[in-house]
């Protein structure tokens, strides 16, 4: 977890940074024999009065800091003030430690702070200076030895005048929104020759050449460059620094480099290279870094083989090897390391089970049970943190984990663990993560006794039972609780007045809840609340609108039965709001301007879009689909395009024109206006939507010619124009590579005429040779694209669009002429529908090479000739319809053709042979042998079976069921069949929140 890592960084920084200890000493060594210099006293009071004090932050930090200026009073000796240190002889202020002092306001260049000319120690970290620039006046403290401005909300460039502080021993400017250019860094490196500690984490140094650091002072003990956007090769000489104890280069994703190849000895005690591209040679590391106590190598580039043992690093205390794709068995012998308290092996590919332990043995590796292939050893009682999440571990959680007396953080989520959750004998846990496993049974009693527990995540398991929420009342420190998607039935009886003041995240999705948890009325620090997929049938209570009104950022109440109107939303910091799939009524509520995700689809909202929707300028996803909203779509929607990725307004009653305000540089990826009453022509500004992947304008009243100009959109994959008033010929491409990514094209139910667009067919690259075969879906984390397409005669809503799904539907127009052989190039095509047109000529035999074709509908045209025998090669074909044409001759036999029924051929009086009752004459005899194949299953991501039809007796013994039948499981993109067909079946699948 990110917060845990930051806490760890704070811990190790203090451990190796004399600032922590020295600052506290300076505060305690106040002068008791001399009064503060009057000038300095006045300057300090003036400095204090230029800020407001955030007392709430002081309350949070009281255990670490007590450097508030609240105690500063005129008339008192300033040398006795909190955070102030004076020189004993002169009374001048020489030290000012206001770290985490709750200061809020701007520091200007004329601040009285800069008149304290004798300062040699200044700590302003952890305050809020509201984006003030770091003044060049900081470079005027000529006696300064320690300067800490970290985490204090400065912004802009670090002034080169900082390099004038030639006496600096410690410099900490770590914070985002601050930049450091190459010339300023070079001056700092050249002039600050006494530096022992240099901390610039989070400072943007993207323009800096890493070689600049090679000339740093040889006295350097700490170098922290975490997440600085460094790129290029980091100098090897840094590893040779004779006094360097801490080196943090983590999260510089494009930083490269190597350890020195020669043998050397480094005094490094803390090394953090996570998420860099620096080559980690395990043998060099274990040979040369013999003093390491803290080693963080998450998501690194390992050279050579990874060794399970640590060689000389027996003194290691904290080890992070997460996210490196390591496989095989976990090296359980690591638990033998006597000093190891922190072990993170999460996000790898480790397999197997936990080892058994023997309390009488001396080490994990001392015994090996070959029959069970498990390591056997002692209980590692020293562990404080163990992260093994995101692997492939199976079996049960061993009981010895519950007996570790010091264990505070246990994360086993995202594995395949089964059985019951163990009992924990100690009460030391602060975090317990068991999400996404196969655990069952009841939640053990010992969890409710973990009085220090802050984070509990048991989501997505098979836990069951009736659970009263009151059982959590003994956990006063609980800040995150996730019980979602189990088989728990949760009730709030007997809860009385219990509150959890620290609660920030509560996820009770799919917990069979029938009421809103009333205790939330007092949860003023609530940040995330998820109550989706429950049985709440009620209005949203007014008290909930006030809960967390100053803190709540994420709210998910989707998939319930919420009723009534909402009214004004009061959450000031809301960013994510999901109210879809309820029964809400009334007008559209508008959330906070900070909202980036807003979905209220599948409700019963009425009325027009209120103009206040124009205030949501941070929107990335807006989904108002399947309501009864009317009126015009506000033009301001197009102005959101610098942030708006998804605009889904389908299935409403909007009328008027499509907004034409899409501007250059927009990031719109999905525009779905299907099922409204929009008219007019397409706005040319759609051409500026260079990120557009899905354009669905079906079922409107748009009157226009075919928009050839859309062919140049480089990422367009889905184009649906069905059921409008488009007219005229499609014509020829205007570019060399038209619709190069297009996979779904639906022009059905319009007034298109002329010849089929053969030239377009020749260039539909994504349908010619689609390389994607993995089960992936279009969309993004918070939203997955969905469309309605006609598949084998059924209108099917695909709530997820598989990236290898392809289809063309030109049905119900007035296209004429013959089908060109060019269309047979589309070998990745799954479905083709040319029905209800005026096409002539013969069915091309070349269709036989379209081996992925699963449905082919050529009905209601004017085709002549026979059905080509080559079509029997289409072993994936599950739906075939050539009815109402002028075809003649015998119907081909064998393979898929033995599964089609009469209605596939009706209206062709010249056809004969099974399954029709009309037999063929001697000159029209069908092929002599009936070729039946034992396995007609078609893989490639679709799971369906075809049962052959018996011809000998003429009795149907099976039917083809294609996409609409479960085999090993229904395709999860398929939600419901919405077309009008006899004996249609509706399949609904509820998908969990991503």
Automatic annotation (TrEMBL):
Keywords: Cell membrane, Glycoprotein, Leucine-rich repeat, Membrane, Receptor, Repeat, Signal, Transmembrane, Transmembrane helix. GO terms for cellular component: plasma membrane. The keyword Chaperone does not apply. InterPro entries: Leu-rich_rpt (IPR001611), Leu-rich_rpt_typical-subtyp (IPR003591), LRR_dom_sf (IPR032675), LRR_N_plant-typ (IPR013210), RLP23-like (IPR046956). Residues 1-21 form the signal peptide. It is a single-pass type I membrane protein. It is found in: Cell membrane. SUPFAM superfamilies: L domain-like, RNI-like. Residues 37-86 form the Leucine-rich repeat-containing N-terminal plant-type domain. It comes from the Eukaryota. Pfam families: LRR_1, LRR_8, LRRNT_2. Belongs to the RLP family. This is Leucine-rich repeat-containing N-terminal plant-type domain-containing protein.
């Amino acid at each position: 977890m990110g917060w845990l890592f930051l806490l760890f960084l704070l811990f190790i920084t203090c451990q190796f940074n004399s600032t922590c200890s020295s600052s506290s000493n300076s505060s305690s060594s106040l002068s008791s024999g001399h009064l503060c210099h009057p000038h300095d006293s006045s300057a300090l009071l003036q400095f204090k009065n230029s800020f407001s004090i955030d007392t709430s932050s002081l309350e949070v930090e009281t255990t670490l800091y007590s450097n508030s200026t609240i105690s500063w009073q005129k008339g008192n000796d300033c040398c006795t003030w909190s955070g102030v240190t004076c020189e004993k002889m002169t009374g001048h202020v020489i030290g000012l430690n206001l770290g985490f002092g709750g200061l809020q306001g701007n520091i200007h260049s004329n601040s009285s702070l800069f008149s304290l000319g004798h300062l040699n120690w200044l700590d302003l970290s952890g305050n809020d200076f509201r984006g003030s620039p770091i003044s060049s006046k900081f470079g005027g403290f000529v006696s300064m030895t320690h300067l800490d401005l970290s985490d204090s909300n400065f912004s802009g460039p670090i002034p080169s005048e900082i390099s004038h502080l030639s006496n600096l021993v410690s410099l900490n400017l770590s914070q985002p929104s601050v930049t450091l250019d190459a010339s300023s860094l070079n001056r700092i490196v050249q002039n600050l020759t006494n530096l022992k500690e240099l901390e610039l984490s989070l400072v943007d140094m993207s323009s800096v050449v890493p070689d600049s650091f090679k000339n740093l002072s040889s006295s350097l003990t700490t170098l922290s460059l975490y997440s600085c956007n460094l790129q290029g090769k980091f100098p090897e000489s840094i590893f040779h620094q004779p006094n360097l104890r801490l080196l943090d280069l983590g999260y510089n994703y494009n930083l490269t480099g190597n350890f020195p190849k020669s043998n050397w000895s480094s005094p490094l005690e803390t090394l953090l290279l996570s998420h860099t591209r620096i080559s980690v040679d395990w043998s060099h590391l274990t040979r040369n870094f013999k003093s390491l106590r803290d080693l963080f190598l998450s998501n690194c580039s390992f050279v050579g083989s990874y060794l399970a043992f640590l060689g000389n690093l027996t003194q290691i205390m904290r080890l992070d090897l997460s996210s490196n794709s390591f496989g095989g068995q976990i090296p359980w012998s690591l638990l033998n390391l006597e000093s190891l308290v922190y072990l993170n092996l999460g996000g790898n590919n480790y397999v197997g089970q936990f080892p058994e332990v023997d309390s009488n043995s001396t080490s994990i590796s001392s015994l090996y049970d070959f029959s069970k292939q498990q390591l056997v050893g002692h209980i590692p009682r020293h562990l404080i943190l163990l992260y093994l999440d995101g692997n492939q571990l199976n079996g049960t959680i061993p009981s010895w984990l519950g007996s570790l007396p010091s264990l505070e953080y246990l994360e086993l989520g995202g594995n395949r663990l089964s059985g019951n959750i163990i009992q924990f004998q100690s009460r030391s846990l602060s975090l317990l993560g068991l999400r996404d496993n196969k655990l069952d049974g009841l939640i053990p009693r010992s969890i409710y006794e973990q009085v220090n527990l802050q984070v509990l995540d048991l989501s997505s398991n098979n836990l069951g039972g009736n659970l009263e929420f009151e059982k959590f009342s003994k956990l006063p420190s609980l800040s995150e609780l996730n019980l979602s998607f189990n088989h728990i039935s949760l009730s709030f009886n007997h809860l009385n007045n219990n509150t959890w003041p620290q609660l920030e995240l509560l996820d009770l999705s799919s917990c069979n809840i029938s009421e809103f948890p009333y205790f939330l009325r007092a949860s003023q620090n609530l940040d995330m609340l998820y109550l989706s997929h429950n049985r709440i049938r009620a209005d949203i209570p007014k008290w909930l609108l006030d809960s967390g009104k100053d803190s709540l950022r994420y709210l998910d109440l989707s998939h319930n039965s919420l009723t009534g109107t909402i009214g004004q939303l009061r959450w000031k910091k809301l960013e994510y709001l999901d109210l879809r799939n309820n029964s809400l009524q009334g007008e559209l509520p508008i959330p906070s301007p900070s909202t980036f995700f807003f979905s209220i689809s599948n409700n019963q909202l009425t009325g027009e879009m209120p103009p206040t929707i124009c205030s949501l300028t941070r929107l990335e996803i807006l989904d108002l689909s399947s309501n009864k909203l009317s009126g015009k779509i506000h033009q301001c929607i197009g102005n959101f395009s610098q942030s708006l990725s998804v605009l889904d307004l389908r299935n409403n009653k909007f009328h008027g024109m499509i907004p034409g305000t899409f501007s250059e540089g927009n990031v719109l990826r999905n525009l779905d206006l299907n099922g409204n009453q929009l008219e007019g022509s397409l706005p040319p500004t759609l051409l500026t939507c260079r990120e557009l992947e899905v354009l669905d304008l079906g079922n409107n009243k748009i009157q226009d010619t075919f928009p050839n100009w859309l062919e140049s959109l480089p990422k367009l994959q889905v184009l649906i124009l069905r059921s409008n008033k488009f007219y005229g010929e499609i014509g020829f491409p205007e570019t060399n590579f038209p619709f190069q990514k297009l996979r779904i094209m639906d022009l059905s139910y319009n007034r298109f005429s002329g010849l089929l667009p053969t030239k377009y067919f020749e260039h539909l690259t994504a349908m010619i040779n689609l390389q994607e075969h993995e089960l992936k879906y279009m969309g993004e984390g918070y939203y997955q694209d969905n469309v309605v397409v006609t598949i084998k005669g059924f209108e099917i809503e695909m709530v997820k669009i598989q990236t290898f799904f392809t289809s063309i539907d030109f049905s119900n127009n007035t296209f004429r002429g013959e089908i060109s052989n060019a269309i047979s190039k589309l070998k990745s095509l799954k479905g083709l529908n040319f029905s209800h047109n005026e096409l002539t000529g013969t069915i091309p035999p070349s269709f036989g090479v379209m081996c992925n074709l699963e449905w082919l509908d050529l009905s209601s045209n004017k085709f002549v000739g026979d059905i080509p025998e080559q079509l029997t090669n289409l072993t994936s074909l599950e739906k075939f319809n050539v009815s109402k044409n002028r075809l003649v001759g015998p119907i081909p036999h064998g393979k898929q053709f033995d599964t089609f029924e009469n209605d596939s051929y009706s209206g062709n009086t010249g056809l004969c042979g099974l399954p029709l009752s009309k037999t063929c004459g001697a000159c029209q005899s069908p092929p002599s042998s009936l070729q039946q194949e034992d396995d007609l299953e078609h893989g490639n991501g679709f799971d369906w079976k075809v049962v052959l039809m018996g011809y000998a007796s003429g009795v149907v013994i099976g039917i083809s069921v294609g996409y609409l039948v479960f085999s090993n499981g229904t395709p999860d993109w398929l939600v419901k069949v919405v077309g009008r067909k006899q004996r249609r079946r509706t399949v609904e699948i509820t998908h969990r929140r991503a």
